[in-house]
Amino acid sequence: MATTPTRSLRDAGQAWLLSCTNQPAHVQRAWDTEQLAPFTTGRHWRAAEAPLLPSIHAMRRIGSDRLGPVLADVEIDRAWWLLPPGLGDELDDVRQLTVRPDGWVLKCPPLYGLGGRTWLKRPDGSGRLTDPVLLGAAFGPGGYNRPSEETR
Q: Going by C-beta distance under 8 Å and a sequence separation of 6 or more, which residues neighbour residue 125?
């Protein structure tokens, strides 16, 4: 059985996701029938695709307080990081990341797992997206590590 987030977080996160599509009724119908729903990248966010396990390690390096939503597909061993829509070439040299172009479709579940896809970091309604500089550093040779409590 899928674990669902608290109602207020689920409502805010789901409302934010629905605001990121020009077809919210279509998306809601898909979710109501337990199907993944299509989201087109570009206007609200871009997506960077990466292998699943390195993504989990990168999430720990970055720290949950600095993460935007991260979607995973356990069946195909992939993760997608939601990044700012104005993303430039910051991640072009990061071998493990593939930044998807504007207009690319990412099929997303609601805020619980569905069809092998689950949110590793759920949208919380804040609209926060992962900083591409932090993401690149976390996947880089040395790997970004969040500052310790003493240096904050």
A: 9, 11, 12, 13, 15, 16
CA distance 149 to 108: 34
Q: Tell me, yes or no, if the pTM score tops 0.70.
A: yes
Quote the CA–CA distance of 74 and 42 in Å, as a whole number.
25
Q: Identify whether the C-beta of residue 138 lies closer than 8 Å to the C-beta of residue 58.
A: yes
| Res 77: pLDDT | 98
Residue 78 to residue 60: CA distance in whole angstroms? 17
Distance CA 137, CA 34 (A): 36
Query: What's the pLDDT score for residue 8?
Result: 67
For every residue of 93-143, DSSP letters joined together read T-TT-EEPPTT-EEEE--SS-BTTEEEEE---SS-----HHHHHHHHSSS-
CA–CA separation, 118 vs 108, rounded Å?
Answer: 8
Supply the pLDDT for residue 11. Answer: 87
d(CA 133, CA 146): 13
